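Structure tokens please, single chain.
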Amino acid sequence: MRRGQAKAVSLWVMIGFAWLCATAVAQDYAQVQTGYELQFPRDHGSHPQFRTEWWYLTGWVKDARGGDLGIQITFFRNRPRVAEDNPSRFAPRQLLFAHAALADAKSGKLLHDQRAARAGFGLAEAQENRTDVSIDDWSLSQTASGYSAKVVAREFSYALEFKVTQPVLLQGDRGFSRKGPRPAQASYYYSQPQLAVSGSITVKGEKREVSGVAWLDHEWASEYLAPQAQGWDWIGLNLADGGALMAFRMRDGSGGTLWAGGSLRAADGRVRVLAPGEVRFESLRRWRSPRTQTEYPVALRVQAGNIEFELEPMMDDQELDARASTGTIYWEGAVSAKSGGRILGAGYLELTGYWRPLHL
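Here you go.
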């Protein structure tokens, strides 16, 4: 018990240092620059010289009874720039965090869990040159056909395979994704849409075989949010015709759009990059969390280029309390997209900065 308490205290001190160092100037880190050509498989892996990085898996699956489930698995890496000259192996040169969530349309409940650790000692790692990130018995790794994810959470577990069916989708200008009015407010960003999911999900000892479609985002940066940015609204949709759509907007303090963008891959593989003026989010219905009293626009009308559609959540309560790891509360949920009475696609909606302004 005492060893466990000491480990927890040590971890929280480490995380505290990371947030205190969040004000460090971005120039102390590697910089995102225009003209850089993403190279694979190298850029599938970790980029430890940058401040922040994440691998984000979301998707819809069905069990054998036809029930819809929403899955989320996220690994974050942070370079806090704390004691980097310290030769001790215990120096927190890299921090890793992970979130996992399961949305069950039938029960209307969201199950979620989180992890946090310093990298090292074989217990938490983010490998370079290939996707291979883990914290204890949570992992996401590349395979010959795609990705494999294993998560053992408190109330559920994942053993899932994700088969790549399409080429990498480079976001923005060949992977250089602007997030604000200044060019430095950008990230390197690519997606793997239309991943074919198979495997099992276990809830309360009941193992369910599942299959479906997922989306992976990999993004890294050092200076990400503009000072006036409150948070963002983001969607990643696997379209029913085989296409893919990503759209986002950065919000200012008044709820207006500070910056926006996205990309649309048509069924024939052609990609259209969306300019800031081509993306619009309009709230249709808001939901108030009974736990935090935070309001989220869980139903939205979205315009992305020349298409317009409505987003409806699998269920309203998909709020994640991640204060024990990344220090924030946000809404991350399975949504379906409808246009003219027909299903356009399905994916995930992320709403950050509604609880409090988001700081990376």
